[in-house]
UniProtKB/TrEMBL annotation:
Its EC number is 2.7.7.65. This is Diguanylate cyclase CdgB. Residues 281-333 form the PAC domain. Residues 421-551 form the GGDEF domain. The keyword Cytoplasm does not apply. The gene is cdgB. CDD domains: GGDEF (cd01949), PAS (cd00130).
Amino acid sequence: MEAESEPYVRLATMRQLHQAVADLNTARSLADTLQTVADGIVTGLGYELGCVNLVRPDGDLVIAAFAGNAAAEALITGRVGSRASWDRRLTMGEAWDQLRFIPHTEGWVLLDDDVPQWHTEGPEPRFEDEWHPLDRLYAPMYASGGGRDLLGVISVDRPRNGRRPGAWGREALQMYASQAAIAISNARLRANMQRALVRLEREQQALRASEESFRQAFEYAPSGMAIAEMGGDQHGRLLRTNDALCRLLGRPASVLRRYSFADLVHPEDIGTLLRTSAEGGRAELRLARRDGTYLWVSLRNSVVADTADGPRFLLTHVEDIEERKRHELNLAHRASHDALTGLPNSAELKSRLSARICERPNSPAATAIEALDAAYGDVESSLTHGYQADGYEGEAAPGGGPWDHHVHTLAPDAEHDDGTKGLAVLFCDLDGFKSINDRFGHHTGDAVLIEVARRLSTCVRDGDTVARLGGDEFVVLADGLGAADAADLAVRLRNAIIPPIRVDGRAVRVGASFGIGWAECGMSVEEVLRSADQRMYVEKRSRSKVHRRAG
């Protein structure tokens, strides 16, 4: 019989408790910890059966570990009791501080609830403090932190001495339950940390694999790839380039990192690049190579972030489209130029002429003072002097304000040279070309047309246009000429055409008749060409036939 006055009982109890708690710290996993708790009840505290009931996430309690009887362990481990039934048990019977003892005289009402149960067989008690087979003793385990969050319940059965535990036995069980709760919480924390570490390692492995996949895709891409800074003082600076881009631009990666695409783009394409860099998307532009030449490329930009809240970068895919662009430019040139002579054709001539004239007739030229008044908003003054940019007095220009940015084209006075400069349209018709075609064949005629085109082109200024309308008709557009200048140009062009042209060892001659017209706002393109054509025929008829013969 346990007696508090016996020092050896207390010492033995303390030793048993100390060993049982020490064993809790040797467990390496949550499952090992739970089983160690159950084993400590039997081996350390001297009970025949020990059971650990653990609270599940849904609140019910599951038998997580059992010790003292292998048959009972196999039968009830893993079975679940409802939280309501357990709450009922922990409010019945006698409260031994935090322990709860339910004597057999009250516990018979629990025989049919849903909590799994196992009892050891034994004789009926003969003494008042003797343990009855249907007595129940529970030690609740609460989570650390001072709260009352139930972590689980230790249930014990039949002390080996056959008597209900005394004060020291109760204190030992209560202290053990407290230490067991700490051990289980720590084991859970370690398990959660281990799972988190495993998950983190898997995520890091996946990230490393993803980064390696990106690196290989970036480095070994058949087309150019670049990563550039986005935002800040270094916006657009190249941070990383692949080998394909280095080969494309003829520059090593160490050199490219000193530049941005804005440093390499063709001056005419800088606006396209800035719009693409700001908005993302795709653009076609020219980039400078190391040898100074420009290469047509297609840029596709994507904005990517380093991390969820990290800096943003611009991922640029650079594709060589030089061959396609060359083909497109060649097609565009063929559509706008004569296949035989290489000169602009009729459609291109009309397009260039249309760009210089508008449908509104031009008003008389304003004085310098009137022009300044108009430019700075002196509407009253401009109306008083009859000056309007569109030529209509007192009315706004259709589709805009009274002044637009179009510079109207004027025609010089044919009778009085007042110094006005205009856009001269010289219509040229070859004399005697038909007889050359008839006598020597189209091969010779084509060679004559090619040579005439060359001679005309060498006689005009840069910026002037020499076009072939078709057949043996050519048109020259020369801007900034007065009436006398246009007449002198016609003479020079005619004199350039007259010298013999050698074709296959044979010298042939053609003459040329020129009609000088003037492009002026208010005229259509057809009217301008028709006017020059009519003046050419007037000039042709005015010259004797002998002066027009060729062959």
